[in-house]
Design brief:
By secondary structure, this protein is an all-alpha fold. It has helices spanning 2-20, 24-28, 38-56, 69-72, 84-106, 128-156, and strands at residues 116-117, 124-125. Helix 1 runs antiparallel to helix 5 (84-106) and helix 3 packs antiparallel against helix 6.
Length: 157
């Protein structure tokens, strides 16, 4: 699992570099053909990992544990222009949330989870290792969307 956590952090740092290379206007722009934007994709990965690891597994029922959950949960769309303060907070949470999941993983917090089927893939997650590995792939999927959106934004500006 050490390599999986390392891989997640590397992807998130790359995503943060992308976010930092863009203006607020560019982060909030919804490119043609998409129903979301770069900052939504970034916020989405920030909230989904802890939502999967703590909420969907039954470790916690406190949805307030995941800041910005309603804004970036699956099925949501951008409904407001994200401020620089929120961007900075999401960047902080992107790394801190994974560090907390890793700490809790090694402390045995996730020994017993409630298995659940993912909404997207309909695969049943029976261990926290599967959930964390799914999160790594999920992060990369949305990082790829953000790269594609960035290309469109750069072409149009």
């Amino acid at each position: 699992m050490e390599n999986t956590f390392k891989f997640i952090i590397q992807t998130r740092k790359a995503f943060i570099r992308l976010v930092e290379s863009l203006t607020l206007e560019q982060l909030n722009e919804i490119p043609a053909g998409f129903n979301n934007n770069i900052i939504w994709n970034f916020g989405h990965i920030v909230v989904v990992a802890p939502a999967l690891c703590y909420l969907r597994t039954g470790i916690s029922t406190d949805t307030d544990r995941v800041k910005y959950l309603k804004s970036y949960v699956k099925g949501s769309k951008p409904t407001y222009s994200v401020t620089q303060e929120e961007v900075d907070d999401l960047k902080r949470l992107a790394l801190e949330s994974i560090a907390q999941i890793e700490k809790d993983y090694y402390a045995g917090v996730f020994k017993e989870i409630v298995p659940f089927a993912t909404d997207t893939y309909k695969e049943t997650m029976t261990s926290i290792e599967e959930v964390i590995q799914l999160s790594a792939g999920h992060d990369n999927l949305h990082y790829g969307y953000a790269i594609a959106q960035n290309r469109i934004i750069k072409i149009n500006n």
